[in-house]
Amino acid sequence: MTRRTAWIVAAAVAAALLVVTAIWLLQGRGSPDAPSSPTATATATPTGSVEERAQEALDRRLTACAAHAGAAPPEHCGIRIPWGTEFAVVSGIRFRIETLPVLAVDGSSFTAAGGSLVATVTGTGQDGAPRTETYRTDDWTVRGDLLVDGSAIDVSIW
Question: 3-state DSSP call for residue 74?
Fold first, then answer.
């Protein structure tokens, strides 16, 4: 995929997200002519919208992913590192989140974009010498599914 094609695809995805978000927000307004009467409930209702609670759950998940220590990126965290051409063996990876991605809900799935992630990889280079490289992305994006069950929200990253 060329760089131009990647930008076109990213722009199309961003435009689609804006349209879906606008439709979702407009559907939540309801009819202005409809009479409203408060309904008493005996159960506690969670504070914050589903999107806010999902963002909090995603932030916790990604922070735990960044704390992972090992020679491979953690699974189900949306982290990919292009180290294959520079390293023969990877002995460790350290992660640092500079900006967490912002979540947008689309039905039972989500896309979170705009994050900044730094990964420092250590190991043995292709030439056999010790090597350390730092990789950075300023458009860290993760996608996944949301499962809302009452007040509980489960964020599952693809």
Answer: coil
Query: Which DSSP string do the residues of 119-158 spell out, in sequence order?
Result: EEEEEEETTSSEEEEEEEEEEEEEEEEEEEETTEEEEEE-
What pLDDT digit, counting tens, does each position of 89-148 carry? Answer: 999 999 999 999 999 999 899 999 999 999 999 999 999 999 999 999 999 999 999 998
Residue 20 φ then ψ, to 5°: -65, -40
Position 78, amino acid: G
pTM above 0.70, yes or no: no
The two structure tokens encoding residue 53: 């609670």
Reported confidence tier of residue 44, pLDDT bands at 50, 70, 90: very low
Please, are residues 17 and 106 in contact by the beta-carbon 8 Å criterion? yes
Range of the domain at 145: 47-157
Q: Are 139 and 114 contacting, i.e. CB atoms less than 8 angstroms apart?
A: yes
For the chain, the domain total comes to 1
